Each structure stands twice: as C-alpha cells, then as structure tokens.
Amino acid sequence: MQALKAKIPGFVAAALIAGIAAVASSYIPMLGTILLALILGILLGNMEFETQALNPGLKFTEKKVLELAIVLIGFGFDGQHLSNLSMELAGSIVVMVAVTVLLSAAFGKLFGMEGNLSLLLGVGNAICGSAAIAATAPALNAEEKEVGLSLGVINLLGIVGLVTLPALSYLLGLSDYDTGFLIGGTLQSVGHVAASSFAMNERIGEWAMVVKMGRVFLLIPMLVVMHFIGRKRNPDTVGRFPWFILFFAAAVYLAQTDVLSPSVIGTLDSAGEFMLAIAMAAIGMGIKIKPLLKLSGKGLALGAVLFVIQISMTVGFILVLL
C-alpha cells in the first residue's frame, strides 16, 4: 500500500499534463496530444523545482502505463483493411519496413551513433511513429533521452511530410490510388496519414489508411525482433520478454470479432491513446534538454535520410506495381 501511495503523485502529475495537452491540441492539431504531452513534460522536467516525490510515479507511468496504453491501442486496429491489399502490395510494405529498419541500423553506425537511437528512428519511420517508438523502447532498454529525441524527430518529419507529400503527388501526376499508397506507405503516424490523405479526398484517404494499417500490423513481429536485439546488445541486463505484445495481439484479434461492441472498442482505443499521452508526459519529465541537444544533429539527419529513402522506395513501388 505504501508503494502504491508513492506512485500516485507522479501519475497524477503526468495525467494533468496529458489533460492540458489534450485541450491544447484542439488549437494546435498539427502537433497532436501525444507530442504536446511530451513537450510539456520536457519543459516542466527542466524547471528548477523539486521532483523527487514524483519520481516513483513517473517511473511507473513510463513503463507500466505505457505498456497498458499499447495494448489498448490494439483495439483501434481494423484488420478488415488488410483484405484490400494484394499479395504484391503486402509484400512491398514488408520490404519497405524491413529495409527502413535495416538501413537505420547501418546508417546509425555510419553516423557514429551509439545506443538505440538509430533503431528507434527506424521503427518510428517504418511503422507508426510515436506508438512504435514507445512500444519498442522498453524492449531495447532505451534511455529516456533517446526516446525523447526519436519522438521529436519523427513527429517533426511527420508534420513536414503531411504538407509536402500531397504536393509531391501533384508534381508527379499520381492518381488517387497512387497518392493513397504514397501517403499511407511513408507518413509516420496514423493521425498524420489520415489528416494528409482525407484532406485531398475520401478515395485517397481510404486507400492510404488501408496501406497504413498494413504497416501497423507489422508492429507485433517487430517488437519480438527488437526484444532479442535488446537482449543481445545488453547481455548483462536481465530483460524480461515484453508480454504486453501478446496482449496487444489479443486486442487486435478481439477488435476483428463481434465479442465487443463498436462503442466499447472505440472507448478502449481512445483510452489507450490518452494513456499513451500520459506515458509521454512522464517520459518527458525525465528528459534533460542539455544531453538531448548533443544528440539532435545526428538524430535529425538520420531521421531525414530514412524518410527520403522511404519516399523514394514508395515511389519506386508505385512505378513498378501500381
């Protein structure tokens, strides 16, 4: 009971920050609740006031609450979208995701980047932005500053892509079908994909979400792979298997059945997104800006390189397959 009481202040602080971020995101929709929660957490965490009483709750939130958030987000996955993917397009999505992650590791060594930052950037670019980074970080035993920087870079690139990809589609003269594949195959977060594609027209939006769901589905095997990479990189660390992956898979499965009503599934998915914002706020409060700035140049460069490669691969597949 005493241990539980010690965790309450930190959790409440993170939840309040997430609540503020949720309200503010309605005025700054391009940033979104999750990124705003992270930013506010970082700002508060770097102010000169005593946070020792909050630490137990913040540590609990950035680990356990984060895992619960990822599980609940699984209820938002619509597997029926995958039935609209041909074998060729499904294969191209797998190739693009795998190549992006492999190149992130290779370029990370080339850029002289230590730790897990390059892999976090690779997974964030390849699959589903903030959610993928947040889910992968525990498996890799990533440091808070690595998580914070990768989240910042991925969301920045997402905002840039949200605006530039429709323009690129226009310049290349792509059809609605091709444009949906371009946006769904490259933009990082589900929110950015929806905002960018549906702003053009409904046909583009629907197809972009089909392609995006194909990428999100690969989060499950990717988390298993990252767990074993983390164990190999840190042989002295007793790393437990991230069991929440199995619960995430179960949530995805349940979302495809009639066991739960659509309203219940929607409520669980929304709760997961808000819990993810709470976890991001907790992570942000543990990030110190000075060490983060030392990593930012290489991190931003690598993220940008990966994003350009992704766009190039997607355009290549469009020219060959579509």
Describe the structure.
- The chain is an all-alpha fold and 322 residues long.
- It has 13 helices and no strands.
Question: Which keywords apply here?
Answer:
13 helices; 322 residues; mainly alpha; 0% strand
Give a concise summary:
The chain is mainly alpha-helical. The protein is 79% helix and 0% strand. Helix 2 runs parallel beside helix 12.
Q: Tell me the β content.
A: under 5%
Query: Overall pLDDT, averaged?
Result: 82
Number-wise, the strands total 0
Rg over C-alpha atoms, rounded to the nearest angstrom: 19 Å
Order of helices and strands: HHHHHHHHHHHHH
Number of helices: 13
* Low-pLDDT regions: none
Task: Tell me the structural class.
Answer: mainly alpha
- Main β-sheet: number of strands, strand sense, barrel status? none
Shape: globular
Overall helicity: over 70%
Through-space gap between termini: 59 Å
List the helices and strands and how they pair.
Blueprint: H1 2-25, H2 32-45, H3 55-73, H4 87-110, H5 117-140, H6 144-172, H7 176-186, H8 190-198, H9 202-217, H10 219-233, H11 244-255, H12 262-285, H13 289-321
